[in-house]
Structures are given as structure tokens and as C-alpha cells.
Specification:
- It contains six helices and six strands.
- The chain has helices spanning about 10-15, 15-35, 45-60, 95-105, 155-165, 180-195, and strands spanning about 65, 70-75, 80-85, 115-125, 135-140, 145-150.
- Helix 2 (about 15-35) packs across helix 3 (about 45-60).
- The longest helix has 19 residues, at about 15-35.
């Protein structure tokens, strides 16, 4: 279920700019540093490098934990995992016990004695230009997504721009071209050539 930024809990709304910046800077750095070699990378290699950049930028902005190769940001009562997301806002993972605990919102006693909310912060890769990728905060719930909110700067604005661009000007002249049958088109061409007015 997609939700708006205003539907996020207050403690998460306070971190939106920093979360967005971690992902945006990671994508920009990937392009700046790896542009000449990018064509040689597999999708997995690209995602791994971008993850490392996201983690570096996140370490500067948020408290974090690392246990058994699982890197999590700690935001109040939430634990956030950095990931590349697919079109359904799902992360690709090897289904280990830690991943199942995270996705199903089961307690992860490896990190906390409290029950916390598990979230993914990540990007959906734009197939044309990676720096145009959308940025998302997602709450997984087992094999489905409980909610997802877009953190991209222009989230919501792009739809508004489209609506403004799509509005019609009542004073503008429109030319409507219609398909004509061959005989009618040929007759009109002959009338135009002879100087007669087409009906």
C-alpha cells in the first residue's frame, strides 16, 4: 500500500531529508566514480557498490549497528536496512533466518531486546539514468509490503506537473487529422490540383 509522507510517524518524518540524501549521494557517487567501468558490472555488483556508498553516507547521519554482516540503521523504534528494491518495493535477499525475521517483523534478538519495526530504505533503479531512480522507505510484512512511501524530491510534484502540462488551452486551435478512404483522398487531391474546392 502506498502512503504519503504525511502518513509517516513523526519520528520518521524528521529523518526524511537525511534518508533521501544518503541514497541520492550514493547514486551520484557511483556514477561519478564508476562511469567508465559501469558497462562491465553485473546488476549484483552495481547494487553492492551502491549499498556500500549508501552505508558510508548513512554512518555519517544515523546511529548504526553491524552484526553478522547485517548493517542496520537505528532510528528510534525502527531498524532500517539499505537495499535496491524491485518494482513491487521488495528487496532481493537470500532467505536466511535473519532475512525472514526482518521481513516478517519478528524480533531480532541479535540486535535488540525490544520489538522494533523493520524498514527498507532504498531505490528503484531507473532503467535509463540511475541518478533518476526513485527513493523509497518500505515496511515489509512477510511476503508482501505493508506500506511504501516515496522519498524522492519530486514525489507527487511530477504528477502535478503532468496534470498542468496535460491541461488544454480552450483558445488553442487543434488540428484533428483523420484517416480518409483512398477514393475520397484521391478525389480531393484531383480537385485540389484542378483548382476546385474540396467539399
Amino acid at each position: 500500500m502506498l502512503i504519503g509522507l504525511e502518513d509517516l510517524p513523526t519520528h520518521l518524518r524528521a529523518h526524511i531529508a537525511d534518508m533521501r540524501e544518503c541514497v541520492r549521494l550514493a547514486l551520484a557517487d557511483f556514477i561519478a566514480v564508476h562511469a567508465p567501468l559501469r558497462h562491465r558490472y553485473s546488476g549484483r555488483t552495481e547494487a553492492s557498490i551502491i549499498h556500500d556508498y549508501m552505508a558510508d553516507f548513512a554512518k555519517e547521519r544515523f546511529p548504526w549497528k553491524l552484526r553478522r554482516n547485517l548493517f542496520l540503521l537505528t532510528l528510534d523504534d525502527c531498524r532500517v536496512k539499505l537495499k535496491k528494491l524491485d518494482g513491487r518495493h521488495r528487496a532481493r535477499n537470500i532467505q536466511t533466518n535473519l532475512v525472514l525475521q526482518f521481513d516478517h517483523q519478528w524480533p531480532m534478538r541479535l540486535f535488540d531486546d525490544l520489538d522494533v519495526t523493520h524498514l527498507y530504505l532504498g531505490y528503484q533503479r531507473d532503467p535509463v539514468e540511475i541518478t533518476n531512480s526513485s527513493i523509497w522507505l518500505v515496511r515489509p510484512d512477510g511476503n508482501r509490503t505493508a506500506w511504501a512511501v516515496e522519498l524522492t524530491d519530486d514525489a507527487g510534484e511530477s504528477a502535478m506537473e503532468f496534470a498542468v502540462m496535460a491541461a488544454t488551452d480552450p483558445n488553442a486551435e487543434t488540428s484533428v487529422k483523420r484517416v480518409k478512404q483512398k477514393k475520397v483522398a484521391a478525389r480531393e487531391a484531383a480537385q485540389t490540383a484542378s483548382g476546385e474546392k474540396a467539399e
